[in-house]
Amino acid sequence: MKTIATILFALAAATALAAPMFEVMPELAGQVNAQTTNNAIPWYGAGKYDAMVTAQLDTLIPLVGTRQGDYDYTLYRARFHNVKVIEGELQEKELTFYLERRFPTPESGIRLKELWPFQKGCVRVFKVNQADHKLQIVSMEMEAGCAQSTLTADDAIRLSRQACAGKVDIPADAQALVMETNGTFVVTFPQPFQPGVRHGDIYACITIGKATGKVIAIKLSP
Q1: How far apart are CA 111 and CA 121, in angstroms?
Q2: Is the pTM of this model over 0.70?
Q3: Strands 34-35 vs 135-142: parallel, antiparallel or unpaired
Q4: Do 164 and 170 meet the contact criterion of CB atoms below 8 Å apart?
Q5: What is the spatial distance between Cα 16 and Cα 38, in angstroms, rounded to a whole number?
Q6: What is the mean pLDDT of each run of 10 residues along the chain (222 residues)?
Q7: Residues 6 or more apart whose Cβ sits within 8 Å of residue 8
Q8: How far, in Å, CA of 28 to CA of 31, rounded?
Q9: Which of helix, strand or coil describes residue 89?
Q10: Residue-wise burial string across 65-101, b where 16 or more C-beta atoms lie within 10 A, e elsewhere
């Protein structure tokens, strides 16, 4: 008997960085009522939305995984229930959607502390648009004042790299300098000193709210 991975999923052929690793086939696409762009976490995403709600994580089920190079990829189906409307209108009482997770393999030697905000029972804030057939999740955020929302310096580095994706090419081995001040993390990625240059340049400098994880400002190298 063929496995669920063989029958219901296919590895995406696209090789673009933003492309999802897994393509959700029609048989499973109809089992959820919401979606994110490329099955990625829309962490503090920007854009217009029709409704803002809170919802509590009920289940997070791993469906299929694969390995490519130094990274393992897993596709999950998440179900959030107890939906409570904060702004706008929404009839759905739960949000179900697919998510991809990318994490270094143990053999890769890459050390990365992941911000994976899916502890069972956690409450998250969602901003959604009501599309024709599925809800489009524009943003997922921590609840204001939630104790779980306090970030560490490692979390700030990871979020900074995510915020810079597509804006500036920061090498994977680039050093990150973190300074904490006034309830924020300021993460700076300095460039190596060049011959004949008295002072160094930066790849980027990112300011992130410690209590929220929201990117406040991004300064790129001129």
Answers
A1: 28
A2: no
A3: parallel
A4: yes
A5: 11
A6: 30 40 80 92 87 92 90 92 90 93 83 71 90 89 57 83 89 88 88 64 88 84 74
A7: 25, 27, 28
A8: 5
A9: coil
A10: eeeeeebbbbbbbbbbeebeeeeeebebeebbbbbbb
The answer to whether 78 and 158 are in contact (CB under 8 A) is no
Please tell me what DSSP assigns to residue 38.
G
Q: Give φ, ψ of 9 to 5 degrees.
A: -130, 150
- Res 114: pLDDT: 63
Size of the chain, expressed as the number of residues it contains: 222
What are the contacts of 176-181 at 24+ separation with CB within 8 A?
178/153, 180/153, 180/210
Q: Which two tokens stand for residue 164?
A: 């810079």
CA atoms within 13 A on the CB side of 84: 10
Q: Which two tokens stand for residue 108?
A: 């890769």
Token couple for 107 = 């053999």
- Which two structure tokens, joined as six digits, stand for 27? 């048989």
Termini Cα distance of the chain: 57
Maximum pairwise Cα distance, the chain: 66
